[in-house]
Design goal:
nine-stranded mixed sheet, 17 strands, six-stranded antiparallel sheet, 11 helices
């Protein structure tokens, strides 16, 4: 019987009889019981695995040690997946199967997690943020230190088991040239320089935030820019950038700060431009009013399937602001505030591309419609409105 300073170990086994998963589980329990920190974990695990299975080949030892270290300091079995820079989304379903998105293609991986492990990973993510998830509050949104967005849902809402979705933060900002042909890129750069107010629209995962980041990269470096987001993802190169991030309620349901609160506060911060990561509610009206009151060149995004749909969605969201404004007045706000709508979508191979650029115009029966300025083939027209 081999012993160590932390109690007896099971008899050593031949290398071919060692089950790595069982060994990882055993060593993880021992490391936790020993109270080892992240720096000590690897050394302890390596010493104990040699005691437990001295004939285990070095590559298998390294694999076991890495798995134990990931359980203690990282996100366990998801760490190898998250370490792959080509993975843009990680999805853990209620049945424990793990799926990843790479280059727009969603595929399963070999990893399968039990419900207890998924719950432990969720708690590991949200605990440092002071957030809460349990049966009484079974949904949570959070952010990893690298900016990746996290959503988790527990039973009873998630019928088959806890679900975890991680949308990776892109460490390298894509240039505008990755989204559109050269003449459309030049047109978009001109719109930013001319201080036109832009709305980027598209479906979920279409690349709205990534395109917004690319557009914002062309802002003058001296402009005082205030960015407002649910989860801070924008990385602007300017010298005068203030980043604001909304805050969910704490475990007691207190302390929430909404996007709308931040938009209103940003107006008091003397911004040259305001960038709202995404409008989802009544903050749309505050954003339109900011665009109409001297904050030219502001940018935002919204979920929509087309140019005209984006304008209608802004109208609908503005009506949710709780202000007693008639629809014609809201439409006048949209028409006066928004200069350009840029539609981004995924292609058949998963690439994100600008598929349409439009300029809002008054349509029939008081509606607001978009006049096409460009599509995925190139520029088709120039805007009627003069630069701001």
């Amino acid at each position: 019987m081999t012993t160590s300073g932390h109690g007896p170990l099971a008899p050593a086994d031949p290398a071919d009889a060692v089950d790595e998963a069982d060994l990882v589980e055993e060593l993880h329990r021992r490391v936790v019981a020993a109270g080892a920190d992240a720096d000590e974990t690897a050394d302890l695990a390596r010493r104990w695995v040699r005691e437990r299975a001295p004939l285990l080949p070095a590559p298998r030892v390294d694999r076991v040690v890495a798995a134990v270290a990931a359980r203690v300091a990282g996100l366990g079995a998801l760490e190898p997946v998250l370490a792959d820079p080509g993975v843009t989304e990680v999805m853990v379903n209620g049945d424990g199967r793990v799926w990843t998105e790479r280059a727009g293609e969603v595929l399963p991986v070999d990893t399968v997690l039990d419900a207890a492990t998924v719950h432990r990973l969720i708690q590991r993510i949200i605990a440092p943020l002071g957030l809460r998830i349990d049966r009484a509050s079974p949904m949570v949104d959070a952010r990893l230190p690298d900016g990746s967005r996290v959503n988790a849902v527990l039973p009873p809402l998630a019928v088959d088991g806890p679900c975890l979705t991680i949308r990776r933060f892109a460490e390298r900002a894509l240039p505008l040239t990755a989204f559109a042909p050269p003449d459309v890129v030049a047109q978009l750069e001109r719109f930013v320089a001319d201080r036109r107010n832009l709305i980027v629209s598209g479906g979920t995962g279409a690349g709205k935030t990534t395109l917004l980041n690319a557009l914002a990269g062309h802002l003058p470096r001296a402009d005082r820019v205030v960015t407002i987001e649910d989860a801070a993802e924008l990385r602007l190169p300017g010298d005068h950038v203030i980043r604001l991030e909304a805050r969910p309620p704490n475990a007691d349901g207190l302390g929430a700060v909404s996007i709308r609160d931040l938009v209103r506060n940003a107006l008091r911060m003397r911004p040259d431009r305001i960038i709202v990561g995404e409008v989802r509610g009544g903050e749309a009206l505050d954003m339109l009013q900011a665009m109409n009151t001297g904050h030219d060149g502001s940018l935002s995004t919204c979920h929509a399937n087309g140019l005209d749909d984006a304008l209608r969605r802004l109208e609908t969201l503005s009506l949710l602001a709780g202000v007693d404004l008639p629809l014609p007045a809201v439409r006048e706000q949209v028409l006066g505030a928004v200069d350009v709508v840029v539609q981004v979508a995924r292609t058949g191979r998963g690439a994100r591309r600008v598929v349409a650029v439009g300029e809002p115009h008054a349509g029939p029966w008081g509606t607001v419609r978009c006049r096409m300025l460009a599509d995925d083939t190139g520029v088709r027209a120039e805007p009627d409105r003069p630069p701001r």
